[in-house]
Amino acid sequence: MRSQMRLEAKFRWLPTPLRSLLLFIVWLLLNNSVSAGHIVLAVILAIVIPLATSPFRTKQPLVLKPGLAFRHLMLVLYDIITANVQVAILILGPNKKLTPGFVKVPLDLTHDMPITILASTVSLTPGTVSAEVYPWRECLTEGKEPEERFLLIHVLNLEDEQALINTIKQRYEAPLKEIFQC
Amino acid sequence: MIEWIISILLLLGGSFVLVGSIGLVKMPDFFMRLHGPTKATTLGMALLLTASMVFFSSTQAGFSAKEILISLFLLLTAPISGYMMIKAAIHHKLDSIERTKGIDNIEDDV
């Protein structure tokens, strides 16, 4: 059965479970210890901070497939390493061989959070930097979804535009759609 | 042995950061210059921080994990600062070199 995108968590006192987990880990790492006192303090902070800040935030879809999210994270980390080697080769090679370009990638994602994650992964992976999300936020009418969204990216060495768009959509966007179910 | 690992990590990390900086100098236009610092430098820093983690874990008592946190924050901030810079560049209509494809994909400001 295909589950639905969810904006609200199941428990009211834990509005964003993953963010709480992240806060817990970050607190322990900051103090570089796993003593009982720090664990108790980390638990308190991980519950209180999301509760106190959730009224300020616009509701974003929650991660519904944590396993897949972890697998996607590993894939992205692997891609960052290969991307670095590729970009290093491109940078050290002759400038004349590079044909830069701007490409518009049509997006299927709808919410800010998944789009931000996609834009950041695109920036960190081979030869691409995300530049803009269209349509402009100022052009959107309140409460109405735009028909189409685009991500404008700058490519260091553009060879096949369609192939690049397909890679981004299949490799990075499809898992995100699956993770957030949107 | 540990010393070897640390030196290799430091050298690798340093060379990635160096390549990123070379890209910053060598590329012909602003948009292409952004590619070096957003990518090559991230991995370079991650390698340098891993070296630091190995060093402090082996010389001091206990495992040093703060560096993981620094890498995490770098991974978060690098794409966002890159995005802010390229957005500003597009807004100011900076010139890109002539052979850039798909210039007309940029939409006008509101």
Structural commentary:
With 182 residues, chain A is mainly alpha-helical. Helices cover 51% and strands 12% of the residues of chain A. Chain A has helices spanning 17-31, 36-53, 66-92, 112-124, 161-180; strands at 101-107, 128-134, 149-155. In chain A, helix 3 (66-92) packs antiparallel against helix 5 and helix 4 (112-124) packs across helix 5 (161-180). The model of chain A has no long low-confidence stretch (mean pLDDT 82). Helix content of chain B is 73%, strand content 0%. Chain B has helices spanning 2-26, 30-33, 35-59, 66-91. Chain B is elongated, with a radius of gyration of 18 Å. The model of chain B has no long low-confidence stretch (mean pLDDT 84). Chain A binds chain B through residues 26, 29-30, 32, 80-81, 83-84, 87-88, 90-92, 95, 98-104, 119-121, 123-124, 127, 129-132, 134, 136, 138-139, 152, 154, 156, 158, 161, and chain B through 16, 19-20, 22-23, 26-29, 31-32, 34-36, 38-40, 42-44, 62, 64-66, 68-69, 75-76, 78-80, 82-83, 86-87, 90, 96-97, 99-103, 105-107, 109-110.
Spatial extent as radius of gyration of chain B: 18 Å
Please give the number of β-strands of chain A: 3
> Taking all residues together, what is the mean pLDDT of chain A?
82
Assign a percent range to the helix content of chain A.
40-55%
Strands of chain B, count: 0
Tally of distinct domains of chain A: 2
CATH topology grouping of chain B: Helix Hairpins
> For the record, what CATH class of chain B applies?
Mainly Alpha
Could you list the spans of chain A in which at least 5 consecutive residues all have pLDDT below 50? none
Kindly estimate the percentage of residues of chain A that lie in beta strands according to DSSP: 5-15%
Spatial arrangement of strands, main beta sheet of chain A: 1-3-2
Helix-residue proportion of chain B: over 70%
What fraction of residues of chain B sit in β-strands? under 5%
Determine the number of helices of chain B (DSSP H or I, runs of at least 4 residues).
4
- Taking the alpha carbons of the first and last residues of chain A, their distance comes to 15 Å
Number of domains of chain B: 1
Shape of chain B, please? elongated
User: Can you tell me the residue ranges of chain B where pLDDT is under 50 for at least 5 consecutive residues?
Assistant: none
